[in-house]
Design a protein that fits this description.
heterodimer, A: 261 residues, mainly alpha, B: 300 residues, alpha/beta, Rossmann fold, 6-stranded mixed β-sheet, 14 strands
Chain lengths: 261, 300
């Protein structure tokens, strides 16, 4: 009971602090911007007359997916991890960890609470964007296929965000301060894709790519079939989950090693 | 020895701590603390903070034995058990700037294992009142003054009524009225638990502690009551009035007072015969200075 209360408490306050630091708000507004701005650009092209009937809906849905997914995927891959990179190093930097570690809080509970807090922030950002943006496209342009639209958010954006944000929080937990955490995040977001190849190649090595090619290109393929061959979304999500577990075990062992030193 | 003292007992035997760089912060110290308010004094680098961090379970000793309330601090489980009934205020307390004072206390209360939100609310309100922060409780911490942050730090340490309260420089940054008030609060706490108070402000120790240790270069230089430490300096404290020049030759100046026709110095040591020195009653600060003076002479 106490452990659960601690995890939920950390997650709740972590989310609250991230929201107040404005970074999360800026990313949410950014995601809304990149998904709403195209409405102004394409509203004349996509006249409502051309969207009537099944073919029209399919055509329009593909456009919505392409515009949404390319923008959202890029944000989730390149921006969102930076918001949460210093979730744990910042505690060390400002000195609050000195107090936190004199409470009966176990290292695993601390890591779980911090990761859940970051996930809570990510999911809030996604929910605000999916509802606002979807409603705007539906009302301003025309109705589209909701099942396809929902799929890119639930099966594409959500796992991609949870894997990347969770990995960044856990990996940077061993770093001493915010600056090194941001540098660690740069390595994760920039160097890693360069090392393993940005586009993916259908082998297991692409699982290390934070762009998650198996998800990113899968949903782009639905809009345009001429995209590279990658692992399936299921394998990508499973691989990401295993990476999360490995990172959690590593971070926990490190925290135990550091305990009382 | 009362039951309370037995429960709160801290036993340290031959305790040493050497940092990875080779710096020996604690050198085979022996200490027993039997409850009440215990003062820890010493110059910078004496090892006070290292000792307190070990007792708080933040750091493992390199050698020796350290037991708090029967729990061995070498073991992870022992440190965890101590943390369950510990209140700790570090010298440099970090507080999340974007939380309000009330939220920060609630956060720490959750981590301390208070699961009932009603109980957390009750304790937070009570402690905010104790440290006189009720009026600013819902203001973000980044808007607090240094003294307010210090008081919030003291409040978080007192959450969940700890059996052991370790506080490092609790009164630094507080105005005189708040210092007096805080000393009273800590003295009240010391009736129910062990309070270890580390400070550079000797007055805090003399006003509130019945027992103290003076540390120097990782060792315990003196262990006993404040009156015994005062007694060490008896016959060594002098008042000397000069036209302005500072008395030297092995004398430590404790304080000085500007007069119309010169300067009156309070010194510790043995003044030269030509000085018009007047022997005065020592204070705890004089005892502290005298002991350090003798230790430095011994080292050289």
């Amino acid at each position: 009971m106490i452990v659960l209360s601690q995890i939920v408490g950390i997650a709740f306050y972590e989310f609250r602090m991230h929201w107040r630091r404005r970074g999360l708000l800026v990313v949410t507004l950014g995601m809304l911007g990149v998904t709403l701005l195209p409405i102004m650009l394409v509203r004349n092209e996509l006249s409502s007359d051309s969207l009537l009937g099944a073919e029209g809906v399919q055509y329009f849905t593909q456009n919505v997916i392409r515009i949404h997914w390319a923008a959202v995927g890029a944000v989730l891959f390149a921006v969102m991890p930076f918001i949460f990179a210093d979730a744990i190093p910042r505690d060390r930097q400002i000195g609050v960890s000195e107090v936190l570690h004199t409470t009966p809080l176990r290292p695993l509970s601390y890591l779980a609470g911090k990761t859940l807090g970051a996930w809570l922030g990510t999911v809030t950002c996604l929910i605000l964007t999916v509802i606002t943006s979807g409603a705007a496209w539906w009302i301003v342009i025309a109705p589209f296929d909701l099942s396809v639209y929902s799929a890119i958010w639930i099966s594409g954006a959500l796992p991609m965000a949870l894997i990347n944000v969770g990995l960044v929080v856990l990996i940077t937990s061993v770093l001493p301060n915010s600056r090194t955490a941001v540098l660690g995040c740069v390595a994760f977001v920039v160097l890693l894709p360069i090392l393993v190849g940005v586009e993916g190649n259908g082998t297991l090595i692409e699982l290390l790519n934070p762009l998650r090619p198996g998800l990113f290109f899968y949903y782009l393929q639905q809009a345009s079939p001429s995209q590279p061959q990658t692992l399936s979304p299921e394998v990508t999500i499973l691989g990401g989950t295993l990476q999360l577990i490995a990172a959690a075990v590593g971070a926990w062992l490190w925290a135990r090693f550091r305990d009382g030193r | 020895m009362t039951d309370n003292q037995q429960t709160n007992r801290i036993t340290i035997r031959q305790l040493s701590k050497t940092y990875p760089g080779g710096v020996r912060a604690l050198n085979q110290i022996d200490l027993e603390i039997n409850g009440g308010m215990f003062g820890l004094i010493g110059p910078n680098g004496a090892g006070k903070t290292t000792l307190m961090r070990i007792l708080a379970g933040l750091m493992r000793p390199s050698q020796g034995e350290a037991r708090v309330m029967g729990h061995d601090l070498h073991d992870s489980s022992g440190r965890q058990a101590v943390k369950a009934s510990l209140g700790y205020l570090p010298q440099d307390l970090g507080i999340y700037p974007n939380l309000t004072g009330r939220e920060f206390l609630d956060y720490i209360a959750i981590l301390k294992g208070i699961t009932s939100s009603l109980e957390r609310r009750r304790q937070c309100d009570s402690l905010l009142e104790t440290v006189r922060l009720t009026e600013v409780a819902d203001r973000k911490v980044k808007g607090y003054s240094g003294g307010m942050k210090r008081r919030l730090g003291i409040a978080q340490a007192m959450l969940d009524t700890p059996q052991l309260l370790i506080i490092d420089e609790p009164t630094s940054g507080l105005d005189p009225e708040e210092r007096v008030r805080l000393r009273t609060v800590l003295s009240e706490m010391a009736k129910r638990c062990t309070v270890i108070l580390s400070t550079h402000i000797i007055e805090d120790i003399s006003q509130s502690c019945t027992d103290l240790a003076l540390m120097y270069k990782g060792q315990i230089l003196f262990r006993g009551s404040p009156s015994t430490l005062i007694g060490q300096a008896r016959g060594k404290v002098w008042q000397i009035t000069t036209s302005g020049e500072s008395p030297n030759n092995g004398l430590s100046v404790v304080s000085m007072l500007q007069l119309e026709n010169g300067v009156r110095y309070r010194v510790v040591g043995t003044p030269e015969p030509h000085h018009e020195a007047v022997l005065v009653e020592p204070s705890l600060e004089d005892g502290y200075i005298w002991m350090l003076q003798q230790a430095r002479i011994a080292v050289h």
